[in-house]
Specification:
Elements: H1 2-10, E1 12-14, E2 25-39, E3 43-57, E4 61-73, E5 78-88, E6 94-104, E7 109-121, E8 124-130, E9 132-133, E10 145-152, E11 156-161, E12 173-175
């Protein structure tokens, strides 16, 4: 009998009748290609795709993004692939991120990661960081310390307003799904 009561209690969630609904609660998902220029010891052209998730409330906005792209150094024939993530925890703040990287000069390959800090304004994203790479015998033509500027072209945008209000409300005791 006790087990039955515990299981039934786990299925019921109490609602606070005095809790006010949020005035503004938007969820925005944006996807699109980006192009950019990275400058360090070498100049590198970047191309790729990025997906951003933004949660907008009246007092706080948080943005997160994942991206995948490649870069190429035409002068030294170096190709790179980057998979990255960044977050912007406030409306007017810095972005913090990390990239997993692979670089090759078509004779040797190097893997590593790059912690980054940046600033995003509209669709422009300025970032700086340092790339930690595995050792190589004869392959040094890649940026370690760098600064980069990317521009994202938004092709797809999905906006949803007040996701919590869309749930079916049945009273003070609501069932969890």
């Amino acid at each position: 009998m006790c087990l039955l009561v515990i299981q039934a209690n786990g299925q019921i969630e109490l609602k606070n009748p005095f809790k006010k609904d949020k005035l503004l609660d938007l969820h925005v998902t944006k996807t699109g290609p980006y192009f950019g220029l990275q400058r360090g010891k070498y100049t590198v052209l970047e191309l790729g795709v990025e997906r951003q998730w933004k949660h907008i409330t009246l007092l706080k906005t948080e943005t997160q993004a994942a991206r995948f792209g490649f870069n190429y150094n035409f002068k030294y024939n170096v190709l790179g692939f980057d998979a990255g993530y960044w977050t912007k925890p406030s409306r007017v703040g810095l972005t913090y991120g990390v990239d997993l990287v692979f670089r090759t000069n078509f004779d040797e390959g190097r893997m590593g990661f790059a912690p980054k800090i940046g600033y995003k304004f509209l669709q422009f994203h300025l970032e700086t960081g340092y790339t930690f790479l595995t050792r190589a015998l004869d392959f040094e033509e890649t940026n370690r310390f760098f600064i980069g500027l990317r521009y994202t072209i938004i092709n797809d945008r999905d906006v949803s307003l007040n996701k919590d209000k869309k749930k079916k409300k049945t009273g003070i005791f609501d069932r969890k799904n």
